[in-house]
Amino acid sequence: MSAHGHVDLGHTVAGWAGTATAVLGCTVTGIAVVAVSAPTALAGIGITVGAALLTWLLHLAGWGKPSGPRPESEWPWRVRDRAARRGHPDCLGCRLAGRRGRAPEKASNAVPVASTVTG
Q1: Between 113 and 64, residue with greater pLDDT
Q2: Where would you find the membrane-spanning parts of this chain (predicted)?
Q3: What is the pTM of this model?
């Protein structure tokens, strides 16, 4: 059991790759500030923006995580999300890609009422 309890923290290939690329972009931008170099700053900003694009593309390819809980068998970060092709419900990235995704149908607790017609 981890220090966070028995939960899925959402570690995914998309998350790790995007975070590592964003850290690299911020590092390059920081070096540019110290070196007072506009071209290096633009490169760092470009890398950081590229991190967002990389994360989004990996998410759409199935290497991300849908919002909400996942079954424990899908917790390892190398497990691919098979539902990504259809899109995830309430996911901005999927909506931007034109994937709408359907919300899972909820079980209704309502009991159907039989209508009685007198006539």
Answers
A1: 64
A2: 12-35, 41-61
A3: 0.69
